[in-house]
Structure formats: C-alpha cells, structure tokens
Specification:
Blueprint: H1 2-12, E1 17-18, H2 20-26, H3 29-41, H4 47-63, E2 68-73, E3 81-86, E4 88-90, E5 96-98, H5 102-106, E6 107-108, E7 128-132, E8 138-141, E9 144-153, H6 162-182, E10 191-205, H7 206-211, H8 213-218, H9 243-258, E11 263-268, E12 274-279, E13 282-283, H10 284-304, E14 307-310, E15 324-332, H11 349-364, H12 366-371, H13 376-379, E16 394-395, H14 398-408, E17 419-421, E18 431-433, E19 444-446, E20 451-453, H15 463-484, H16 489-507, H17 519-528, H18 536-539, H19 546-554, H20 560-614, H21 621-653, H22 657-683, H23 696-701
Parallel strand pairs: 2-9, 16-19
Antiparallel strand pairs: 1-8, 2-3, 4-5, 6-7, 7-9, 8-9, 10-12, 10-13, 10-14, 10-15, 11-12, 15-20, 17-18, 19-20
Helix pairs in contact: 6-15, 9-10, 11-15, 11-16, 20-21, 20-22, 21-22
The chain binds adenosine-5'-diphosphate and magnesium ion.
Residues 198, 325, 452 line the site of magnesium ion.
Amino acid sequence: MAAMDIKPIQEMYGSMVFSDRVMKDRLPKDIYQAVRKTIQNGTHLELDVANAVAAAMKEWATERGATHFTHWFQPMTGLTAEKHDSFIAPEGDGSVLLEFSGKELVKGEPDASSFPSGGLRATFEARGYTAWDPSSPAFIKDGSLYIPTAFISYGGEALDKKTPLLRSMEALSLQAVKVLRLLGDGDVTRVTTTIGSEQEYFLIDKEMYLRRKDLLFCGRTLLGAPAPKGQEMEDHYFGVLKPKVAAFMHDLDEELWKLGIPAKTKHNEVAPAQHELAPVFETANIAVDHNQLMMEMMKKVADRHGFACLLHEKPFEGINGSGKHNNWSIQTDTGINLLNPGKHPGGNLRFLTFMTAVISAVDEYADILRVSVATAGNDHRLGGNEAPPAIISIFLGDELTAILDALENGGSFDGAGKTQMGTGAAVLPHIMRDTTDRNRTSPFAFTGNKFEFRMPGSSLSVANANIVLNTAVADVLESIYEEIKDVPAEELEDRLKDVLRKKLAAHRRILFNGNGYTDEWVREAEARGLDNLKSVPEAMPRWISDKSISLFTRHNILTREEMLSRYEILLENYCKTIHIESLTLQEMVRKDFSDALVNYMDTLAEEALAKKKLLSDAPCLMETKVLSVLDRDAAAIADLVGKLAEDTKQAEKIEDIQEAAEFYHGTVLRDMEQLRACADDAEALIPDGYLPYPTYGKVLFSLR
Ligand code: ADP
Ligand code: MG
C-alpha cells in the first residue's frame, strides 16, 4: 500500500512545471548550459538560446493541453497580473500552426496604464514591458503556459515587486561574497537568500461569505457581535482536522505539488476556522512567486469545496488575525547556511559575523522593515494581543545572547550545545533539547539556523519585507568589509572581532528575549529608543527619509523616483481601502442592519400592544426594557453613521496623500469603530432571524 502511494506523488510533483529537469531533458546541451549560466550568474541571454527554449516550452506545454501563454507579473496592486495569448498562427488556408518565439518569451508589452505607478507614468504613457525571469520556472495552469516576468516602465523604472527583489538578492550576494573571501571562503561565488513563508488563513462557508457585504467587498467583517465562544478554550490549535477541511487541504496539496510548490505542513491554528500551511523553503525569488500562487490556489480550491478562503489580516474582531511568517536565511553556492551556528558557535567567526550583520541591519533599519509590512489590514493585527507588536526587536534566546555577550566583552563562551533530556518514561526515546526555546511574541526571532520575521500580514506579498531585509544586511556587510579589507591576514581575526564588538554595542538595544506583548516592554522599548510605529500613516514617512533613500540608491535597489512612487502607491492604497470599508459599513448599517433593528423593534412594540389589549395592566417589562435600549442604540447609530458619511466626504477632498491617510486613520477609522461598537451592542439583543446576514457564531463555527 505504502509503495503504491509513493509513486503517484512523485509523478505528480512538478508535473506542470518547466523545471530544470525538463529543460535538461528537452534542450540541446549547449542551450541548456547557456540557460543555466544565465540563471546562476545573470549573464545576458542570446536570442538563439531564447528561441530554442521557447520552442521547447511550447512543445512541452501543448503536449499537456496548453493553448495559450501569458507573461505573469506582480504589479504594485499586491496581486498578480496576466494577459493570455494563444499559440495559434493561422496559415491562410484554414489551418493553423502553433508558434511561440524567443522574442515572445523574453519580452511582453502589456498596456500598463491602469496599473499603479505612483506618478512614475502618466496614463497617456501606456507602455510597460514584462521581461522573462529565467530564475523562476514557467508552469502550466488552467490551459496556459505561465512565464514569470519582471514589470518595468518605458523609462526602465520598476513597476513591480520582483525587479527590486532580484536587485536586493544581487546586492546581498555581492557584499556577502566579499566578506566571505576575506574570511577564507575563497570558493564561494554567490549567496542566495532562502525563504519559507508560513501562510495563515481562514476557511468559512461560501454561502455565508456571499451573504456578508463586508467580507465580500473588504475581506473583513465590519460589524458583528462576538459569538458566545471564541478561542479561549485553546481547543482549535493543532486540533483534529474536520473532514471537509481535511478534504480541502488534501486537494490543495495536490494542486500545489503539481505546480512544484513544496507544501509541507498543515494544521489548525489558534482561532476557530483558522489554519496554516507551510512550504519547504526555497530561493527567495521563487518562494515569493510560489507564495503568490499558493494564495491564489487556496482561494480557488476553497471555492471548489464550498468554502471561502479569507486571507485578510484581521477578518474577525476579537479573535486572532492571520500572518505570514517569513523564515529567512542566507546560503552559499557551496551549500553553507550562513546562519547555522554549528557545534561551536562561539568560535565560528563566520557565523558571528553574519549574525552581527543581521542584528545591526535590523536595528539600523527597523523603521523601513516596519514600513515593508505596513498595510491597512495589517494595522489591525500588529500590536493586537496575538501578533508581534509594532515595535521591532530580535529574539536570540539565552544561549546565543550569552555567546554574543562574551564576544562583546572580550571573553569566550561557546554555548552548552544541545543536551539530552529524559522524558521520565522508559518506553519513550531520549530526545535532544534545543539550545533555545521558542518565543512566539517576538517579531524577529532566531529559530536555530534562520530568522523568522513574523510581522508580514497574511495577504501581503513577502517581496517587500525581503527587499528591505536583503538590502539592509548587504549594507552592514559592506561596512564590515570596508573596515577589514586592508587588514593583514594575521591581524584579521582580532580586527574583525573589534568591528563586531563595536557593532554589537551600538545595536544590542534591539535584542529582547522577554514577552513582547506586555506594557512593560512598550515602556522599555521607548526608553531604549526603539520605534513603535503603530499605523501606516505613522510609518510611511520613514520610507522616504534621506537615510532610507540613500540606502536603496547606494545599492541600486530602487531609485529615488521609484521610492517616491512606492510611497504614493502605498498611501493611496491605504486611503482607498478605508474608503471602501467606510462605504460598505454605511451601506450595511443603513440598508441591512437598520432594517433588522427596526423590524425587531416593531415586533416588540406590537407584542407589547397585543398584550396590553388582552391585559390592560400587563407590565410588558421585557419588551419595554429591550425596546428602550434598542431605541437609544438606533438613535446613536443614526447619528454615528451620519458622522461617518460626512467625515468620509471630507477625507475625499484632501489632496495631500499623507494628510489624507492621517485623516482616514485618525477620524474615519475611529468613526467606524464607534459605529460598530454601538451596532454590535444592539446586535447582541436582536434574534438571528432578523439579520439578513450570518452572525459571528454561525460563520466561525459552522464548518464540519
Ligand atoms: P519552526 O518549527 O522553527 O518554525 P520549521 O522547520 O517548521 O521550523 O520551519 C518553518 C519554516 O521555515 C518552513 O517553511 C521551513 O521550510 C523554513 N525554513 C527552514 N530552514 C530554512 C532556511 N534555511 N531558510 C529559510 N527558511 C527555512
Ligand atoms: Mg515557524
């Protein structure tokens, strides 16, 4: 049985991917090697090579039923974009040939005028180009051959997330290799960043989803009294998978495996109806592409199973939101994970150097790391009681902290290493205790041989976070290199230790092993001078500070104009998101909720009247009590929805984008919260049958 099960998975895995193995099989040897060289060293790809690859791709894809091809890219919308062309070329005699040229593979020209450019391009300058990224494999989905591409403007500016991500990976490689050469790792020619992004999501009944305008238009609920039960029993986390959910997960795994996405771990999360999927880590660029595909497949497969998959950061008030943990490390082309402490971390100068570089980079550029995860949705999560706070700090664990302390103070401490622990039961195996425990409250935690950045929101592309991380670490590595590049070999170790010591002393304020959810930490972080940027409008100006622009331009990641455009796009997106939420809430309250409220009040009044008719001295206590509460709520709701409408109109008129975002944050969102509080109070008194949409209790606890 087991043997029978293994074969189909191996056959299925990557069956829809034009992978390295397929290229090796189908391309002439010299062509294959030319492509490998381009992928590994970024060398220019000649047209004859592109032609040969295109021909092989077309043949492979059409054999698998593909009729179209599309360049696939990641504009600043946060989603992916595609435009399909068929392979057919009519012959004139009624027959067709199937064609796909190297030119079509390498370059596309989508009319780009409707994608956000943040002022980089006026609408009349419609030209944009997509350029093939050979380092991320093409794949077949829904009868089309998908070609991962970068998206740039007519003037060469990046209009997407892939372009700067690739640039940041280059920058980090360049600086890391320079440092490694000095440290004696002469055979390393390239380092890559690796990412494994754990994806959280909610699954709810599709019919219920369709009946809630807030979920439909905004991806999150804007109203809703809490269900009698939430997540307080802690009975969902790692709980038994419900059969329908298990069937969905099984189907999803298969779809992902076909696309060569290494889906690995699946389990129930903390909140009711919340789940998680983690893949095996891959090269950053591919991992980012795969995460986008994973999110898309989650929604598609959910629909097939009668579910809606919610990827919003905070779909429900009062229970945990969803994040995307960005596990990140650096690996050499000789196979060394540079964040692996090894058996003797205290004496592992290479590890200490890279560890110090990451610590320094995260402290130095904490504010833009915070910006990299700043969205309207994620604002509801960061600082809530389940997510990392908006303050960035690093968890290392006691042992590594002690090792770095020793380095800083000129002593030596190698760490105790893993120790064996008894389980107290003879039949159980002895297990090794890890050198560090876990800390779930830290936004940036060292987890043995990688860092886990926990701030990204569930719906966000992880490209931005990694662009910032790679660039910041590249910058610190360069400064380390500059300080030791001319030091004679025999003094190198001492001088390098001096440099690391200085860096640790300057940046150790970012290290925090305690509980990041407490108020004491907020106070202590403030005393340490760490930023606590709580919202998008508070964080965004840091993106265009002189320091940040200087960082990105120095390493050729983004130009000043590209940075300004991203600032505009993100703030605009923030304002639009809250604007849509405000209109949705107004409509739900005015049309749906008020209708239910009035109907129920009528019923109560009629009941009271009917009773009085029968019994003139009937006190009607229940009816009058509830009626008077609801009447007060109804009046307050009418006032509050009026205020929300007025303030939203005012927000629309503000021209300065920063000012507008601040107004949406400080006024419109506050209006929405007040209105919601009042409506939720009333909802708690109204029988479910009066509401035209399902309650929290139904939405969260209906899956079987
Ligand atoms: P943990 O239990 O500490 O979270 P896991 O082994 O479950 O660690 O890994 C969590 C995620 O981290 C997975 O997606 C995994 O592939 C990824 N991961 C593991 N090693 C690395 C690495 N070197 N670089 C990037 N991601 C990694
Ligand atoms: Mg993890």
